[in-house]
Amino acid sequence: MSLDPATIRRIAKLARLHVEEKEVVRLQSELNSILGWIEQLNEVDIEHVAPLTGAAQMALRLREDAVTDGGQQEAVLANAPERVGDFYAVPKVVE
Amino acid sequence: MLDLSIAAASEALRRREFSARELTQAHLEAIAALNPRVNAYITVTPEMALAQADAADKALAAEAPALTGIPLAIKDLFCTAGVRTTAGSHILENFVPPYESTVTANLLRNGAVFLGKANLDEFAMGSSNMTSAFGAVENPWKRRGDDTALVPGGSSGGSAAAVAARLAMGATATDTGGSIRQPASFCGIAGIKPTYGRCSRWGTVAFASSLDQAGPVARTVEDCAILLTAMSGFDPKDSTSADRPVPDFRAACGRGVKGLRIGIPREYRPDNLPAEIEALWQKGMAWLREQGAEIVDVSLPHTKYGLATYYIVAPAEASSNLARYDGVRFGRREKGEDLIDLYERTRAAGFGAEVKRRIMIGTYVLSAGYYDAYYLRAQKVRALIQRDFTEAFRKVDALLTPTAPSAAFAQGENLDDPVKMYLNDVFTVPANMAGIPGLSVPAALDASGLPLGLQVLGRPFDEETVFAVGAAIERGAAFTHAPRLRAGASA
Question: Is the ipTM of this complex over 0.90?
């Protein structure tokens, strides 16, 4: 499976990464080289194998549905690039 | 004073041979002298360190906790309240966390002094520390008669270089595919990745959540045990944190290996394994045999698929974790024509080339139509890798392998080919896939004078046996070499 330039642009869009036209060729070659190397997994027999999602070897815990923290507007907003009052500010989304 | 182990410094502090302030001051002076060249620290916090040292001097009067007055470096992936935490990335270059990670909070509660934040590959993605947005780290070790700048390994390259150069007595690190053990091997020090779940991930910048695990690096196995005991413990804020008691790992270092069965996985011997590494491995087996262990051949048949599996699973999780860097809530922001353009330009400017590559691979393998072919298949191969270890640990108590397929390489090497760089992690990645503990112990110098490490792997939550075997390797190796670039030595 080899990625074409249109697919590279589509992946970049999905990943929300701005890609200049001149970067597409380089990315195409790098990603195809990595994916080509990954193809070796196709030779493994995975019939009747259940996927392993994590290494924790435990069931996730349940906890009480209770508020344990909150009321920290200043701490939460302290690193905001732009804020208006108690809100994050972004460019206008709706006209 | 700077050459002491944590165990020895701790006793000396209690005997009042020197004060915590003197010990911290000596480290700060060493950092001021050497860090401009080594670049092991991104941020140094002298005022905070001296204040913590003064508090330690007061506490030492009473029954003080294990790490009271011990100066440490903190990998810049652990959030530290009020101290900039960058993850080695431009996208977080001005991020000041309002909270403390659980691991660093545990260390502070144990009396540790924090000297500053250690350099790393961007978002811990790399094996050379070359992807840091804050510049490369120079390995304190040099080839004999050669001043070429070598890499310290990665991603915890700053942590390992700081400890090797005597710019800290120990350091926190993290390991997603080998990022504690490979730099420990390259820098001639010890480092352990504990069992997944042993150290809380809360407050540590996430890379691949099912693989990420914090652990210590230090100059002796015993020091790693002391640090790990302090860092570990159940944390309700991390849903995968293990709710089980933390053993006294330091005590386990003295257990010995008499009667233990040590497995030698035959698949860890690729055709191109350097003869020196093979010879060192044989020496390791001899050291353990001499101390009463039995050496047993074992097979981990899916070892060769570990790396390819990793390079699906880790980028997939990274692409999801790193979606949070949007230029809106924290971190860097670039101007855009609209909100989408703001996201895209912020992320393009804030992330480096390796991080972008992994986000793109991860996005692709999770995208509609390719999920089954890549991600689901990788999760199934991961199950087989874990099963290999489970089978092996029915027959043996621990495994012995080389840590890395080479000694430290030069800055700039392996940069042209991402896959070649990835091959550095061939012996370390399987432990992350299975969640088992792995310790690297400095064992010898190669012909050019660079350190090589041996790796001990153990059963889940049996770090005690791993420490026992690691300490036995350390006794056998009697590794007393020090790097050329270090505090107190004339470069």
Answer: yes
